[in-house]
Amino acid sequence: MNTISYDIRGKIMNTYYLFFGNLANPLKIEIITELKKKPLSVLELAGKLKVEQSKLSHALCSLRNCSIVQVRQEGKKRIYELNKETIMPILEIIDRHENKFCSECKAEKSRRK
Amino acid sequence: MNTISYDIRGKIMNTYYLFFGNLANPLKIEIITELKKKPLSVLELAGKLKVEQSKLSHALCSLRNCSIVQVRQEGKKRIYELNKETIMPILEIIDRHENKFCSECKAEKSRRK
DNA sequence: ATATCATATGAAATAGTATTCATATGTTTA
DNA sequence: TAAACATATGAATACTATTTCATATGATAT
Question: Which of A9, A43, A51, A66 registers the highest number of CB atoms within 10 A of its CB?
């Protein structure tokens, strides 16, 4: 069930790996942070994050493939919305983890800035 | 707070990114799966997963840096233990996510290039 | 139907991360 | 303290994922 397996082309199939792998990217974290506030179109996101449109499209595509975001058409825009049900509790767990287990790392961080 | 920042050497500092990035690796998923059952030494893990020792040491080192595992010395062995408090609920959320949102993706995945 | 706006896609270039291998460090036992 | 065992580390290489850029597709308004 949670073992590593491979598809016919040798690609890894494990859900956890695909899920974490999808989120292990700074731009995607920024997208999620933005979409936590409210749903946005691609160009609206591009404006807020100051990144190129096609870069966003690629990132949104993989987030969509994992159902981390969903999209709806609105005129000629495509509005991306965060699947909060999954993401929010995970981010909260990570916040608690950081506070509980990484307090020194955080001190380390602020001392360095 | 949850924005992307960089340390003095240009390394990204965001917690979520570091956390997900650390887990976005098949070997680390296998390590976690093994350590869910019980704590193990490096060589015990190497035996179970059939991977080389130094490969494991590298992987365990980064898991330790994120407090996803902790280690204790026992004779000449170092016993690695999973920090279940953080990981277990996250994996459960991902399981639910997969069941609820990715029933089609599973088919999709195998079709992917 | 065409022009325009909005987004997606493919492929090559690039950046980021893991693996490998040789070797170093640490711990116990004889 | 030397030998054996267990693990860690650094650096080069191999891999994989992202970025970029040119272009394609889809939607709407005229």
Answer: A66
